[in-house]
Amino acid sequence: MKKSITNKFYNIVTVFTVAMFFSCNDNFDQVQKIGISENEPFTVDYNLNLKYTDSGRITANLISTKALDYSNRDFPYREFVDGVELDIFDDNNKKSIVLADYAIIYTETGLIDMQNNVVITTHDNRVLKTNQLFYDQKNEWLYTNEAVSFKSEQDLINGHGFDSNTKFTNAEVLEVTGIITLEE
User: Fold this and answer.
1) Are 80 and 102 in contact (CB under 8 A)?
2) For residues 166 and 163, what is the distance between their CA atoms, to the nearest angstrom?
3) Which structural domains are found in the chain, ordered by start?
4) Chain Cα centroid distance, residue 63
């Protein structure tokens, strides 16, 4: 009888031990998110001045007063809520400037969505103005379907939509609504 009680005790302990073992799982991601609401940014950065380099040469400089980092989301992104200035340097160290009142960078896709008063001024004084512009970092491509104003070397072109590589060597205003030839 005593042996039967001991066996039952060992069986019960074994069942509880196995149950506890199988109930344990990797909760590291959940532990990291403790105290962080799903609607709140993971971090808030102030007075950013980020420099991007390639082989020791500065290729871009990003300046913003406030950025919200949502890298804790399933589809991570970073928001620049107080505007952004991006200085881009070509191989000859000539600078082009991109300004926008708001920008969002989608980390996984490499897509940058710039909004509100977007102005690009190239190193050779070509100027693009629009209310929204997308930059595909992987393909180095700029595009929008919004109204645009593009000042080239000799023309001021207004239209809806814009496509170009980042060097503006094939810049094209889509659905042109007007062209004004500039005097020299």
Assistant:
1) yes
2) 10
3) 40-181 (2.60.450.10)
4) 14
Region for 131 from its dihedrals, namely left if φ exceeds 0, alpha if ψ lies in -120 to 50, beta otherwise: alpha
* Paired tokens of 55: 């082989």
- Alpha-helix residue ranges (DSSP H) falling in the chain: 2-23, 28-32
Whole-prediction pTM value? 0.73
Task: Say how many residues make up the chain.
Answer: 184
Sign of CA dihedral 171, 176, 178, 179: positive
Q: What percent of the chain has pLDDT above 70?
A: 79
- What's the CA gap between 62 and 47, in Å, rounded? 10
44 within 8 A of 67, measured Cβ to Cβ: yes
- Amino acid at position 114, single letter: M
Tell me the C-alpha to C-alpha distance, in Å, between residue 182 and each of 67, 75, 149, 152, 179: 39, 45, 14, 9, 9
pLDDT attached to residue 26: 58
